[in-house]
Specification:
The protein has 253 residues and is of the alpha/beta class. Helix content is 35%, strand content 23%.
Length: 253
């Protein structure tokens, strides 16, 4: 990519994300020349992408962030966006019955706000999100069994899938490593995706919670197909142009 004038703000950030996706890495000098800004500006931009979990810093630049990351690291990133998403779906949470939350940190922020739902069964395969539910006062919080993934803070494997499939949920609130127009949601691991698909199969409605950094950013493992998703919720205004590719595929909030 080359330009004769500097690229600013969100355009520059998106250009860097595209460079990382295409090449797997970005060099400070090359990116600065391509975008018409200083290396210091690119360094600050890359630091921001690192904070969002989209890149990892290396000498002279950055590489694309791949693979699962610790729950605690993810929870601290894009916190404001996750809180906005949680607020936008609180009115959808039923007073009774059962819902499922996946092991994402976005679902974890929603879990923190469910304290008034005394008669609601909330099932999750994340011990971190289970802890958040208990701290919020959700009396009927339920944790699946399964094999512990110490890195992601989730329970996976045959036992987790079996437990997830045994309950009928009115809703699943789930996130993902990313979404794309063709395939829907995707995840960083096959094991995590398998449990999530079992939750989705048992749910009347699937609500996808995706912050805007995950748009057009497919992950490694196939997650939830668009045919199963009723609603896409982001921190963006629903009229934002970044959501245009998904109109006609899914309802947007």
């Amino acid at each position: 990519m080359s330009t004769t004038s500097s690229v600013h703000g969100e355009q520059r950030r998106q250009a860097l994300v595209e460079m990382l996706e295409a090449a797997g890495s970005v060099q400070l000098a090359e990116a600065a020349a391509a975008l018409g800004v200083s290396e210091m500006t690119i360094r600050r931009d890359l630091d921001g992408l690192v904070q969002e979990g989209l890149a990892r810093r290396v000498r002279g630049g950055a590489t694309r962030a791949v693979g699962p990351r610790p729950f605690g690291e993810r929870m601290g990133q894009r916190r404001q966006a996750k809180a906005r998403i949680a607020q936008k779906v609180l009115d959808l949470v039923p007073a009774h019955g059962a819902i499922a939350l996946d092991a994402s940190t976005t679902a974890g922020v929603l879990a923190e706000q469910l304290g008034q739902h005394d008669d609601l069964v909330v099932v999750t395969n994340s011990w971190e999100n289970f802890g958040a539910l208990r701290r919020a006062g959700v009396a009927r919080a339920t944790l699946t069994g399964g094999q512990a993934d110490e890195l992601t803070g989730s329970l996976v494997g045959p036992m987790a899938c079996r437990f997830a499939s045994e309950v009928r949920y009115s809703m699943l609130f789930a996130s993902g490593a990313g979404i794309d127009v063709e395939h829907g949601a995707s995840d960083v691991s096959l094991e995590e995706a398998q449990v999530k698909r079992e939750f989705a199969r048992g749910s009347e409605r699937v609500i996808l919670l995706i912050d805007s950094t995950k748009l057009a950013r497919p992950g490694m493992a196939r997650g939830i197909d668009w045919r199963e998703v009723e609603l896409l919720v982001t921190e963006l205004d629903p009229t934002d142009a970044r959501l245009d590719p998904y109109r006609g595929i899914v309802d947007i909030r």
